[in-house]
């Protein structure tokens, strides 16, 4: 028998007066936050379509007791910088008797400090969410779900943008790849996502661009990849040419930003594609 659920997705608050907050700069453009919680709305798209879902990004909206009490489960995702806020959310849920499901970098890296979370979904949701949902339907969900292999991003759904009030953000975001071929000592990306970049298809990227275009977004779009050029060949042969064509047909509605390693300067063809009006 198919179960029906009410799911509240909560993104904890980033500390003020830090690189993550941008609270002073955002005031100049009358926005509440830089980017929506892309991970959470991607997870939301993996949940059954018949379930009721609400999103509270604490960087733009307050989390109230009645929001939590409405839900059967509260899903929490956070970066390490959001640890203190995440702890307060968990405590609030426990005090109200609502079960929690947590994942993302904070809980994957420091899961031993969050044993009081009812269900921990470590590493990537494409692997752990389906297993959790299957066990939940059987009435016996586990405390911890871990990964056995890196998931194929070609199965990643378009994020549930209908949950987001895009007017509150300075830019929207999407993800093309996970993983990085380098091993920088200051970065934990490879421990989270591996050395071999895994990528979406050009068709997936266009579907995601169309999704935010249809919602009326015009402006900045940030590719959250830790190294956008991890797979140069695919970028040059498929992704960038397809994006260029789509942007031309849509009248150039977006301005793109991303992160890339400095060796991009070794590839003149890639640089020319990256700086074209796309």
Structure summary:
This protein is of the alpha/beta class and 278 residues long. It contains 10 helices and 11 strands.
Tell me what you see in this structure:
This protein has 278 residues and is an alpha/beta fold. The protein folds into 2 domains: 6-145, Rossmann fold (3-Layer(aba) Sandwich), CATH 3.40.50.280; 171-275, Transcription Regulator spoIIAA, CATH 3.30.750. Helices cover 36% and strands 15% of the residues. It has helices spanning 23-28, 38-46, 65-70, 83-96, 105-109, 125-138, 189-193, 202-214, 232-250, 268-275; strands at 6-11, 52-57, 73-77, 99-103, 119-121, 144-145, 172-174, 177-178, 198-199, 219-223, 254-257. The strands form 3 sheets. The chain has a 6-stranded parallel beta sheet, with helices on both faces. It has a 3-stranded parallel beta sheet with strand order 7-10-11, with helices on one face.
